[in-house]
Design a protein that fits this description.
Arc Repressor Mutant, subunit A; 2 domains
Length: about 220
């Protein structure tokens, strides 16, 4: 009887996914992944027979999962300050988006050199679609509770998710600036726009700036 593997397949796929996303398929070796896990390359081959098979399975793993912190929107109290609720989501979802974009780029770049088919069940909603529905439901409940003004909840969900994804693309894909704009500063600015707006119509009364964004109030 052979010695049992020291690592689980989930461990292997998780570490492989990180390595492929960071360096790409061509630049990543089995030795790189094994070293990160503290095992030999042979230990990886107990789970996947080839590097290609490891790449296929690693980049598919977790494909249909919505992160727990987004799922928590189901239970979010619509009477709580949306600035606090949304900030908690935004602080975690931007790094999540960055990781997913890196993984998708790794898959895209490899697909250009080989034929790679990832399984996809068209009968199931994609993770982005499910996350968008969670945001829409949250905004709908906040509108009913009076903590967010009566905007269209689906439009608000698209604006929220689209703005966060745009940050990732501008800073980590297009790399429009030498260094990424600080995430906390971006979240601050985005919440200020949603809370008070920035466009002032001619002749409209200027709304005084509130201090300490933690006070309860309506947010749009």
């Amino acid at each position: 009887m052979g010695r049992p593997p020291r690592i689980s397949k989930d461990d292997v796929l998780r570490q492989a996914r990180q390595a492929f996303a960071r360096k790409g398929y061509a630049a990543t070796t089995l030795a790189d992944i094994a070293t990160d896990l503290g095992v030999t390359p042979a230990a990886l081959l107990r789970h996947c027979p080839t590097k290609q098979a490891l790449f296929d399975q690693a980049m598919q793993a977790g494909e249909n999962q919505v992160p727990d912190f987004v799922l928590a929107l189901r239970e979010a109290n619509p009477h709580d300050n949306p600035r606090i609720v949304l900030r908690g989501i935004m602080e975690r979802i931007i790094p999540f988006f960055i990781k997913k974009v890196e993984e998708n780029i790794a898959v895209y770049m490899h697909e250009k050199s080989v034929s790679l088919t990832l399984p996809f069940d068209p009968k199931q909603a994609s993770p982005p679609a499910r996350a968008l529905a969670l945001f829409e439901n949250y905004f709908r409940r906040c509108i009913a509770a009076g903590t967010i003004d009566g905007v269209d909840p689906r439009a608000a969900a698209v604006l929220m998710v689209g703005s966060l994804q745009s940050y990732v693309f501008i800073n980590y894909v297009f790399k429009a600036t030498a260094t990424p704009y600080p995430i906390p500063a971006y979240i601050d600015a985005m919440l200020e726009v949603w809370t008070r707006g920035v466009i002032r119509e001619k002749g409209a009364r200027k709304i005084p700036k509130r201090r300490g964004g933690g006070s309860r109030g309506k947010s749009t």
